[in-house]
Write a structure and sequence with these properties.
Elements: H1 3-8, E1 14-20, H2 29-38, E2 43-47, H3 58-70, H4 74-81, E3 92-95, H5 98-104, H6 106-116, E4 120-122, H7 128-141, E5 145-146, E6 149-150, H8 156-165, E7 170-173, H9 187-197, E8 205-208, H10 214-220, E9 226-229, H11 231-240, H12 245-253
Parallel strand pairs: 1-2, 1-9, 2-3, 3-4, 4-5, 6-7, 7-8, 8-9
C-alpha cells in the first residue's frame, strides 16, 4: 500500500507541510525534511521551484525565485533526495508545475520519483482529462498517486469526477485565491468545508491555502482529514533559517 493511503487510515488529523526545495539555501532540503518528520509532521510536500508559479502567492514565489538563483533544478532535487528513504518513513509528495516535468520527460520523471521513494505528485496545471488519457498509466506503473485540487467554485459533477479519478486524498483549496493570502476563515469557507464533508466522497480531503496557525488548522480540519501549511512555514524559514522547525510545528499541533 502507498504510504499516503496508509497515512489516511490513521485516526488523527494530519498536518502536511509544504516547502520549496533549495530554500533558504540550496542544500537545506534534506535536513528540513528530516526535521519535519522528527517533530511529528505527517506528510511533506516538496516544492519544485518554477519561474512562473501561477497558483502561488508572493511568499512562495519569492522562495521559488531564491531557490532557482541558489541553483535548484529538477536533477539537483533528485540527486539530493536519492537516499531520503534511509531516514524518512512518512509520505513525500513532489508539488510543482507541469512544464519542468515535461522538460525532464514525464516517464523519466516518474521513474526517478519511484526510485527515490516519492509517493505522490501534485501538478495543479495538469488537467484531469489530459492526465487520464496520456499519463495515468505512467504514474500507476511507478506507484505514484496524482493528487487533484478542488476549489469552492468546482462543480459537484467535477468534484465527483475528481473523486473517482483519485486514490489517496483530494487537495481542497480553501478559497479562490493564491497561497498565503488569507488571514483566517469566514462563514463562506466553513460552509464550503462542511458541504464537501457531507458529499461522502471516497477520498479524504486535505485543506490547503490559508492555514497558518493552530486556529486555522483546527478550523480547516473540522470536516476534513488534515491541512497543509506552506506560506506560513516558508515565512518561518525566511526569518529563522532551518534551525527552529520544532517550534513551528508545536505552535500548530502542540
Amino acid at each position: 500500500m502507498n504510504r499516503i493511503n496508509q497515512k489516511m487510515l490513521e485516526d488523527k488529523k494530519l498536518l502536511s507541510i509544504y516547502f520549496t526545495a533549495g530554500y533558504p539555501a540550496l542544500n537545506d532540503t534534506v535536513q528540513i525534511i528530516e526535521d519535519l518528520e522528527k517533530n511529528g509532521v505527517d506528510m511533506i510536500e516538496i516544492g519544485l521551484p518554477f519561474s512562473d508559479p501561477l497558483a502561488d502567492g508572493p511568499t512562495i514565489q519569492d522562495s521559488s525565485t531564491a531557490a532557482l538563483k541558489n541553483g535548484m533544478t529538477t536533477e539537483t532535487l533528485f540527486e539530493q533526495l536519492k537516499d531520503i528513504r534511509k531516514t524518512i518513513s512518512i509520505p513525500l509528495i513532489v508539488m510543482g508545475y507541469f512544464n519542468p516535468m515535461l522538460q525532464y520527460g514525464v516517464e523519466a520523471f516518474c521513474e526517478k520519483c519511484n526510485q527515490i521513494g516519492i509517493d505522490g505528485i501534485i501538478m495543479p496545471d495538469l488537467p484531469l482529462d489530459v492526465y487520464e488519457s496520456e499519463y495515468k498509466a505512467i504514474f500507476e506503473k511507478n506507484g505514484l498517486l496524482n493528487i487533484f485540487l478542488i476549489t469552492p467554485q468546482t462543480s459537484e459533477t467535477r468534484i465527483r469526477q475528481i473523486d473517482e479519478a483519485s486514490n489517496g486524498f483530494i487537495y481542497m483549496v480553501s478559497s479562490a485565491s493564491v497561497t498565503g493570502s488569507k488571514s483566517g476563515f469566514g462563514n463562506e469557507q466553513e460552509d464550503y468545508f462542511k458541504r464537501i464533508g457531507t458529499m461522502n466522497l471516497a477520498n479524504p480531503q486535505i485543506v490547503g491555502f490559508g492555514i497558518k496557525d493552530a486556529e486555522t488548522f483546527e478550523q480547516a480540519t473540522k470536516s476534513a482529514k488534515g491541512a497543509i501549511i506552506g506560506s506560513a512555514f516558508i515565512k518561518h524559514l525566511t526569518t529563522n533559517g532551518k534551525n527552529k522547525i520544532r517550534e513551528f510545528v508545536t505552535s500548530i499541533v502542540g
